[in-house]
Amino acid sequence: MAVDWLRENRERNLHNDISMQLLVQAVSGMAMDHYLERMTRSGNWGDTAFLHALACACKVEACFQGKGGRQVIFLHIKSTPTHQTY
Question: What is the pTM of this model?
Answer without folding.
Answer: 0.69
